[in-house]
Amino acid sequence: MATKSVNITPTLLLLEKLSTINQDQQGNTPIPSKAMMMFIGAMNGLRRNAEGIEKKLDDTLVEAEKGKDKEEIAVVLLGLGYFHYTKTNYPKSLEYYNKSLSLWKQIHGDTNIRLADLLKDIAVLYDAVSNTTESKKVIAQYEQLFKINGKEIPK
């Protein structure tokens, strides 16, 4: 397992940018599904460093997959990736982050600027496992998103 210390964006901040589940046309927050309620519980447990979080997140993924909602599955995959990041298991974190990215691209399209922070975090994780080749490829995708969207690349 990797032991290098890295910093990535907290899951909830990423989800704030990636999520399409905001409000209905009347301004009401939608009622969360069972999978999302399980996810919220697991992430609260992670914050408190509670035991059994990985199992709770795995169970949440099973529940989300039953519902076949790509966004819910992407959310849980991101949570699992973040969990493994907190345990410095960067290879496993990368696995989940890349699976999540694949679903977010299906949801938003490959060129949506909402993907930027997730790409940046994936590049950081590739650096953490000393895979500079993949990190550079992901940074190139990150920079391309800003160019395509007519935005300045953050410094």
Explain the overall architecture.
Helix 4 runs antiparallel to helix 5 (90-108) and helix 6 (116-128) runs antiparallel to helix 7 (132-148). The model has no long low-confidence stretch (mean pLDDT 85). The chain has one domain (11-19, 33-148): Tetratricopeptide repeat domain (Serine Threonine Protein Phosphatase 5, Tetratricopeptide repeat, Alpha Horseshoe). It contains seven helices and no strands. It is 66% helix and 0% strand. With 155 residues, the protein is mainly alpha-helical.
SSE string, helix = H, strand = E?
Answer: HHHHHHH
3D shape: globular
CATH top level label: Mainly Alpha
Q: How big is the Rg?
A: 16 Å
Report how far apart the termini are. Answer: 30 Å
Overall pLDDT score:
85
So how many helices? 7
What percentage of residues falls in helices of 4 or more residues? 55-70%
Task: State the CATH architecture.
Answer: Alpha Horseshoe
Within CATH, the superfamily carries the name Tetratricopeptide repeat domain
The computed structural class is mainly alpha
CATH topology: Serine Threonine Protein Phosphatase 5, Tetratricopeptide repeat
Strand content: under 5%
How many runs of DSSP E, i.e. beta strands? 0
**Major beta-sheet overview:** none
The structural domain count equals: 1
Q: Which spans of ≥5 residues are poorly predicted at pLDDT below 50?
A: none
Organism: Polysphondylium violaceum
InterPro entries: TPR-like_helical_dom_sf
Pfam family, one: TPR_12
Protein name: Tetratricopeptide repeat protein
